[in-house]
Amino acid sequence: CPLGFAGELCEVDINECLHLPCLNNGTCLQFNGDYSCTCLTEQTHNFDLYFDGTDHSAVLIPTLNASKLQELTLCLWFNIESESSYLSLETDHMPLVSLRNSNKMSSYIMNNSVQIQRMDGLWHQFCFVLNSINWFVYLDGLKTLLGETKEWTVNKSLKLTLGQKLGVEDEDRVRGHLCGVNIYSQALTEDNIKNMSISCQQRENYFFNIPYGMEWVV
Question: What sequence ranges are listed for the domain EGF-like (predicted)?
C-alpha cells in the first residue's frame, strides 16, 4: 500500500495523529494519507524578526557567496498578518522565490505564479527545494507544489530580502513575524523537512550532515 494507507485494498487511511507526532504543543491535522502540524503562536521567541507595518520594517540580507551552487534549500517559519510581500530570494541573474501573503497577487516560484497564503494567526513552515531536475514547495511538511527545473545557475551570489523593499505604499507594508530562516547548499530530503515541521520549534537551527556543503542561518 502507499505510505499512510492499509487494508487488503489499501482502503484504510491510517490516522498518524493517533501517535501524537507534533511536538511542543503543536496540533496534528490528518490529511489523505498524510498529516501536518500547526504550531501555537506562543512558540514565538524574542529574537524573531517582527515587521510592524512601517516603512522601516524591511531587512536586506547581505549578498551570500554561492558560486557553482547546484542544489539549494530555503526553509523558514512565518506568521504574517498583512496582505504583503515578505520574502524574496534571487540569484545574480534571476529570481527564485518571491513570497506574498495575498488573495489579490500571487507568489512566484521559479517564475511560476502560485498561491501561498496563511493568515490564521498560527506559525507555518515553508520550504523551497531546488535541484538540477525539479523544484518543490513544502508547507507545514507537506509537498504542495512541484515543477521542472529549467536552466538555472548561480554564477556568483544569492540575495535574500526579508520584508518588503523600502518605499512601498502603506497598504503593502508587511506586518508579522519570520523566524528560523535557513539556506542550505543541498536539496534536503522530504524526511528532513517533515522532521522540522513536526518539531514546532522555530528557534532551533537544524544542522544536517552535508559533505562539503554550506549553510547560512539568518
Answer: 1-11, 13-48
Domain that holds residue 28: 1-40
**Total domain count, the chain:** 2
Query: Cα–Cα distance between 139 and 75 in angstroms, integer?
Result: 10
> What residue type is 96 in one-letter code?
L
Tell me which long-range contacts 17-24 makes (C-beta under 8 A, separation of at least 24). Answer: 21/198, 22/198, 22/200, 23/198, 23/199, 23/200, 23/201, 24/199, 24/200, 24/201
The pLDDT of residue 210 is above 50: no
- Rounded mean pLDDT of 150-166? 73
| Whole-number average pLDDT of the chain | 76
Q: What is the pLDDT of residue 111?
A: 83
Residue 17 sits in the same domain as residue 64: no
DSSP state of 164: P
Is-contact 49 59, C-beta < 8 A? yes
d(CA 41, CA 59): 22
**For residue 215, what pLDDT is reported?**
44
The CATH number of the domain holding residue 149 is 2.60.120.200
CA-based torsion, 45, 47, 49, 52: positive or negative = positive
Residue 8, beta-bridge partner list:
none
Percent of residues, the chain, with pLDDT higher than 70: 76
For 38-48, how does the pLDDT look when each residue is reduced to its tens digit (9 = 90+)? 776 554 444 46
